TrEMBL record:
Family in the record: Belongs to the peptidase M17 family.
PANTHER family listed in its UniProt record: LEUCINE AMINOPEPTIDASE-RELATED (PTHR11963), PEPTIDASE B (PTHR11963:SF20)
GO cellular component: cytoplasm
Keywords, alphabetical: Aminopeptidase, Hydrolase, Manganese, Protease
Pfam families (UniProt xref): Peptidase_M17, Peptidase_M17_N_1
InterPro entries tied to this protein: Leucine_aapep/pepB (IPR011356), Macro_dom-like (IPR043472), Peptidase_M17_C (IPR000819), Peptidase_M17_N_1 (IPR048816)
Domain Cytosol aminopeptidase: from-to ranges: 311-318
Name of the protein this chain belongs to: Leucyl aminopeptidase family protein
Length: 464
């Protein structure tokens, strides 16, 4: 997922806008015009024309960019065409504004991703002999390669089955990343979570044979303090409120929040932001044995707030509560929380559009605008104070699973917000972390959501 060297011999690739097709075609040599007409090239999105020279060798390629409506509907159109291109090196010819050019070049890199860990052969895999692009000179190639590498990390972590990605393996990936960028990292395990006053993380993970833990990374010695918190539930059975089989099938992705903040942290460290970065990941498996937490149990959190556990399958907000309280104790300039938290978010906005919650209007505006600019869409939802009573059961300070099923993503966000005193600089993203079907530059499977939007927005928010 890297660009070809600038000096590589490259085949011209023309990205052709549907509205500009006629003018572009009229500027081509007669043999090219004849070939395009004979093959019916209409610049439809992702349509490819392989144009030979007089000897029959490939001389140039045209790829349709579609209409403005097509491009609003589908991102990474060029990336969607990459797997169908012959292996080789290409040089892009285009008439795109900078933001669109960056999107399409990034899409090309992302199109090279495949998860191959458990495949014995790459035979038939179009990415085994990839088409490569010379980075357009006007782009920051290093930045785009960093984003692509971070996205590959996120996808790999989510795609790996829980048999090979439990809390210990997530820890190993976390420590590898820390070592790569010269960060310091610490891990708190098992019963030590109780001694460190992280009781909710312990309560969720204690029933698993795989020891629960808190992963803690620090990087950077100066600048604004930014803390990222990600839900690392490596598999979620639902606990004693056991999920049915059809709901458990994708639960390897329940650590998608952890994978996402690791991808974002990778981008920040690789690009050398002048910040003091901290990353906190509660890494657990929500399993069942005689020590499992029970419906109706009351737990005391790090912050001192008591929580009535009315559904053991609403465990993500519990582990995040302790991690957020720990993060907040340092009063960082911003706290970002990412989690595959609620089915309610998917009902409201579907799999592609994560909601986010914050009291901070400038942060919300920056995040929404950045998501639009980099084609990593997010949507602001309200932290509606009127629903606060829904998470207050009376017998304890908070209820982890309000009855009734309404506004489930909002009430989950309100629950998390109770553990952050600096709530004005707090944003929570309820991500899905999964592509149900293949799309341009993204196969079916794990995917980062909101990370590129945050990477674009946070410098504005933090003033770096």
């Amino acid at each position: 997922m890297r660009f070809a060297e600038a000096g590589s011999r490259a085949t011209p690739l023309h990205l052709v806008d549907g509205a500009g097709l006629e003018a572009w075609r009229d500027n081509q040599p007669e043999r090219v015009r004849t070939w395009l007409e004979a093959t019916g090239f209409a610049a439809k999105p992702g349509q490819i024309a392989l144009i030979p020279d007089g000897a029959g060798a490939l001389s140039m390629v045209a790829v349709g960019h579609g209409s403005a409506r097509d491009r609003r509907r589908d991102r990474f159109i060029l990336g969607g065409a990459v797997p169908r291109l012959p292996a080789g090196v290409y040089a892009l010819h285009h008439d795109l504004p900078p933001e669109e050019l960056e999107q399409e070049a990034l899409g090309w890199l992302l199109a090279g991703y495949r998860y191959r860990r458990f495949r014995q052969s790459a035979e038939g895999d179009s990415a085994s002999a990839p088409a490569r692009l010379v980075a357009p000179a006007e782009l920051d190639a290093d930045r785009l390669e960093t984003i692509a590498a971070a996205e590959a990390l996120t996808r790999d972590l989510i795609n790996t089955p829980a048999s090979h990605m439990g809390p210990e393996e997530l820890e190993a990936a976390f420590l590898d990343m820390a070592e790569r960028f010269g960060a310091t990292a610490s891990v708190t395990y098992g019963e030590d979570l109780l001694h460190a006053n992280l009781p909710l993380i312990h309560a969720v993970g204690r029933a698993s044979a795989r020891t629960p833990r808190l992963l803690d990374l620090r990087w950077g010695g100066a600048g604004p303090r930014l803390t990222l918190v990600g839900k690392g539930v490596c598999f979620d059975t639902g606990g004693l409120n056991l999920k049915p089989g059809n709901s458990m099938g994708l639960m390897k992705k329940d650590m998608g929040g952890a994978a996402s903040v690791m991808g974002l942290a990778w981008m920040i460290m690789a690009q050398g932001w002048p910040v003091q970065l901290r990353v906190l990941i509660p890494a657990v498996e929500n399993a069942v044995d005689g020590t499992a937490m029970r419906p109706g149990d009351i737990l005391t959190s790090r912050k001192g707030l008591t929580v009535e556990v009315n559904n053991t399958d609403a465990e993500g907000r519990l582990v995040l509560a302790d991690a957020l309280a720990l993060a907040d104790e340092e009063t960082p300039d911003a706290i970002v929380c990412m989690a595959t938290l609620t089915g309610a978010a998917r009902v409201a906005l579907g799999p592609d559009l994560p909601p986010f919650y914050t009291w901070d209007a400038p942060l919300a505006e920056a995040l929404a605008q950045s998501g639009e600019a980099v084609r990593d869409p997010v949507w602001r939802m309200p932290l509606h104070p009127g629903y606060a009573k829904m998470i207050e059961p009376g017998i304890a300070d908070l209820d982890n699973a309000p009855s009734g099923g309404m506004a489930g993503s909002i009430t989950a966000a309100l629950f998390l917000e109770r553990f952050v005193e600096q709530a004005g600089r707090f944003v929570h993203l309820d991500v899905y972390g999964w592509r149900p079907s293949a799309a341009n530059a993204c196969p079916r499977g794990g995917v980062g959501q909101g990370t590129r939007a945050l990477f674009q927005a946070l410098p504005q928010v933090l003033g770096v």
